[in-house]
Write a structure and sequence with these properties.
2 copies of one chain form a homodimer.
Chain A lengths: L5 E5 L19 E10 L2 E5 L5 E5 L3 E3 L24 H13 L30 E2 L74 H5 L2 H5 L13 E6 L2 E4 L8 E11 L4 E10 L6 E4 H14 L8 E2 L9 H20 L7 H8 L3 H12 L12 E2 L7 H58 L5 H30 L1 H16 L1 H23 L5 H60 L5
Parallel strand pairs in A: 7-13
Antiparallel strand pairs in A: 1-2, 1-5, 2-3, 3-4, 6-12, 7-8, 9-10, 10-11
């Protein structure tokens, strides 16, 4: 936590939302800026009383320039930090990599960023968000029964972030930590340098280099991969694809139990997982999921691993939270179990099946020392005997980049609209129907003053109509739980998945770029033809892996969105049909009026 | 038009709506207040440039007190002057009369008065409002082919109002003139005074007295009413009722024609009326309706005459306006034709049937000299031979007063809600659906980047769903025309009718009060028993007439509101059913996705 000692003065009064980790300050108040790396127009600051929290940057002025006298602009939307790669780490990637496809920088959040987690306040889905695990983090060496408590169990993954969660009271991080990556390290000493000048633009290869991808590409790593470690990629009419297992399985998560140790000083929730292939229950804590997530990210270099649901900071033992988190863990496990590569992997199987503490530790250590992780993962890919047209692959990747970028925008937009719609259903729509209902009820009350027999049926019918509109108001309030919430959940899950894709695409782009650079060196007579051919062949392996994963993503995406849309429309149809029926029974009351 | 030369200064800038006859002014600007009698928080003022229009009284300060420095309050809703009895005329009635029933003063408009006419701006029903004709005005002596043009044709009825319409550009009087009544004249010289002190509270009898009601009650008028002039009241299980004609008829208004005279200098619209009993078409101008309205008010003392649609000041010859006004005139004629007394009256028949100019003038003069108008109307009532229990009648009237007051409140409230709802349908609701539709369309656009065959059907289905939601948005925009507008029309018509009821109830209350006073005088030995008995018998006649009319009102009200609710619910049911169907066909698209 670097305190840069930058000072700012409040331009306007800001009434911060404490629950969102915001800091209240007044016009003229001096604040110390803790970090400007929050994104979305938010900074973190500390006031003179030592309180720390988020502030809208447009509400303060760094100390130097004079104060303008405009009225305050609207505050930016609540801070969301899930997608934003922190500027100090990912600047090269965010700007160069995507701009090379003509797209804008991904982390330019629109002024009113969608924020699905916000709608928690309106009731309904208790969404705790998902968090990305560190791709390159040191795996913890803690054993089965270490003394982390839940408060601390993900400390290890906070080591590279600027804003550690305990500084943000409430849900200040809005359910989503920034993707954790190591600080950028220039890799100018890579094997690549032996062929000549390393261009500045190669900075963007750093991720690739770090994962060992360049070592693989340049042929400086090799191994005698055993048959059982091989991952087969096949050609299909939709392009390269993973070889889907003939016997898919499922895994149910149930019976979360609050357990404790150290004489009750430390407590945690243990979830019971039962894979369908074994039908043997294993008990796992959140920290085990977290460990698994790290291992999957470390090993499966070309597979974006969806973020886990985020850790909650308060209310972790409340039933609603526990069952909601369990549901989110179930969604995550479902997706992993459906993945043709992950579901068959040793580390995942270890997680799903190991019941013995000693074996757990051994398997854990083995996974952490897995020979074929990072760049070496590509050694295990068994590709079709065809070679790929690099330009064609580049074109496909470019389209897919646009796809991911576009879909990410869509998710944000739809989450925003859905979130708004949810609020409208529980607020103004409900009120509108109840205003109408109330006015009919009042009319009936007046009409009731006429005691003539022939008017009583009408009065009763109008009163009934008033009740009907009130009930329709209640239906509006409840409806989001019947259709919208499931859609929001899918959108939110995809938003998380999409946030992990840039790393994968970047890696592939690095490989292609390097292969093309080698071709250029060959043309300049500075690299032997056979070496270049080998590089291109290995670049093909990376392309095969990436394309196979893209294929899997699209396959899942089509199934998920078909399901999502059908469920949503079913819910909507039932809703409007129910309204119609209610109105029809109100109309019937007038028959004898 | 009295210019009182009251000056005021603008406290805030006010950006007036010219179409509503409002006057724009700035903070500090000096205005001459033309009249404070507009009501609803509006005054009429003239600026230094001589422009005249309505201003919100809370936006100015009469010249004397110092200026406060608060932010401007929201402007009051647009001026509506239908219900408000001008303060200079009706203060006694509005305060004393209703307060005697424990109800608040009727003309205390809530801060945001319902304003049905406002929604014209949003399209749909072009509602020009209704205006009440003067009850006691001098009937014009103009003939069939006088040289009033349409601009001037109701000048005669403005003689007693402060705000003549030609001073208000646009529809500044918001479709509704204040009920026209003569300035209050204390009638302490009535026959009543001969029995003793006239109490101050007898002021509230002024209306009654003015109409000649007291003369009737005290027996100082009499006549040998011919059989054909007698109006029969019968006893029914719901109380006294008019004797409904055995052969009801209808009257269609069609073919409005723009006609002109004086070599085209004057032009007007002539409507063609065809009563079903004669099937002979007669041509009538608005001024003829206006004249008829005056005559009906003058003659049928215990019958509230619904206001006519208001005169428009601009766009009078536009097709939309003409057909809308024709529809409103049709509603008015329908209601008159359904009235068992009015529909059978000579003056109404003259209006519906006379095709000859000379006969028209003669009939007009005859109607204006009708012997049995005002208080003498009661001479023509042929009541059942039963006598009424005065306390019981008082109790019924008290309940009915509450009914009228309550229903008036209901109308205002429902008009407000309906008006809001209308705006929401054409604005936010439409936009909300189109935002959802747009987001689906955008998602489909992104998904379209995936050219794999298996994803194309899903993409097409989502795109179709986007279209569906856009269309539902359009449906929301159009829906008010299918259900809400008819309801608003009925509510508005009843609001107008209810505004004319206080006069009728006041008259009856005056009669009962006078009869009770006579009973007291009898008890004190100051009035002979036989005189008192005769007064009470004549008070019964007034009660019979009033109760019969109440009965008719309730009968119409039950039929109208049954019809209104059924039409509304039919429209709503069709709407939600159509939405359901649209969504169902969207859902079908996913079957092959």
């Amino acid at each position: 936590m670097a305190d840069m000692a930058i000072q700012a003065r409040g331009l306007y009064d800001f009434n911060g939302d404490l629950d969102n980790g915001e800091l209240t300050f007044s016009t003229g108040e001096t604040l110390t800026i803790v970090t400007q790396d929050i994104g979305e127009g938010w900074w973190e600051a500390r006031n003179e009383a030592g309180q720390q929290g988020l502030i809208p940057e447009s509400y303060v002025q760094l100390l130097e320039p004079p104060e303008p006298s405009f009225p305050p602009p609207p505050p930016p939307s609540a801070p969301v930090s899930d997608w934003n790669t922190p500027q100090t780490e990912g600047g090269d990637w965010n700007n160069d990599a995507w701009n090379s496809h003509g797209s804008e920088s991904w982390d330019q959040e629109p002024p009113h960023a969608p924020d699905y987690t916000n709608h928690n306040n309106a009731g309904g889905v208790n969404n705790q968000g998902f968090r990305g695990g560190g791709m390159q983090q040191q795996a913890s060496e803690e054993g089965w029964d270490d003394d982390w408590d839940d408060e601390n169990e993900d400390n290890s993954s906070n080591s590279t972030t600027n804003t550690s969660q305990d500084q943000l009271p409430g849900s200040g991080n809005f359910g989503l930590s920034a993707p954790k990556r190591e600080k950028k390290q220039m890799t100018q000493n890579s094997d690549f340098s032996k062929y000549g000048t390393v261009k500045k633009s190669f900075n963007r290869f750093s991720t690739f280099a770090k994962t060992g991808g360049d070592a693989f590409l340049m042929g400086t790593v090799s191994a005698n991969v055993s048959e059982s470690d091989l991952i087969k990629i096949i050609d299909t009419q939709d392009g390269p694809a993973w070889n889907y297992p003939s016997q898919p399985y499922t895994c149910a998560i149930k019976s979360p139990k609050k357990e404790s140790k150290l004489k009750g000083l430390k407590s945690y929730i243990a979830y019971q997982l039962t894979p369908s292939f074994s039908n043997i229950q294993v008990s796992r804590r959140y920290k085990h999921f977290d460990w698994l997530h790290e291992r999957l990210e470390a090993k499966f270099t070309c597979i974006p691993i969806p973020p886990l649901p985020d850790k909650a900071l308060s209310g972790r033992y409340e039933d609603d939270f526990v069952s909601e988190r369990m549901r989110q863990l179930q969604l995550w496990v479902d997706r992993m179990v459906r993945h043709p590569v992950i579901s068959q992997s040793e580390v995942f199987n270890h997680f799903l099946t190991c019941t013995d503490e000693k074996k757990w530790k051994a398997g854990k250590r083995k996974a952490e020392k897995d020979e074929y992780q990072g760049g070496k993962f590509f050694l295990t890919l068994q590709t079709p005997p065809t070679s790929l047209d690099m330009r064609d692959v580049e074109k496909r990747m470019e389209i897919f980049c646009r796809f991911v970028k576009g879909m990410d925008d869509n998710m944000r937009n739809m989450l925003q609209i859905g979130h708004d719609s949810r609020k409208k259903h529980t607020g103004p729509y409900k009120r509108e129907f109840q205003k109408i209902g109330g006015s009919f009820k009042q009319l009936a009350e007046t009409f009731n003053l006429d005691s003539a027999a022939h008017s009583q049926n009408l009065t009763a019918a109008i009163d009934y109509t008033g009740d009907t509109y009130n009930e329709i108001g209640d239906m509006y309030e409840k409806q989001p739980r019947e259709d919208l919430d499931y859609m929001l959940e899918v959108l939110f899950e995809y938003k998380g998945m999409l946030s992990t894709y840039p790393d994968v695409l970047k890696l592939h782009e690095g490989a292609i770029g390097k292969a093309k650079e080698c071709e250029r060196l060959k043309d300049e007579g500075r690299m032997p033809e056979s070496d270049v051919a080998a590089v291109i062949q290995r670049a093909d392996v990376i392309s095969f892996g990436t394309l196979a994963e893209m294929n899997h993503f699209q396959r899942e995406r089509v199934a998920d969105y078909k399901d999502m849309m059908q469920k949503f429309l079913h819910g909507q149809i039932k809703f409007y049909r129910d309204i119609t029926q209610k109105l029809e029974s109100a109309l019937q009351k007038y028959e004898n009026a």
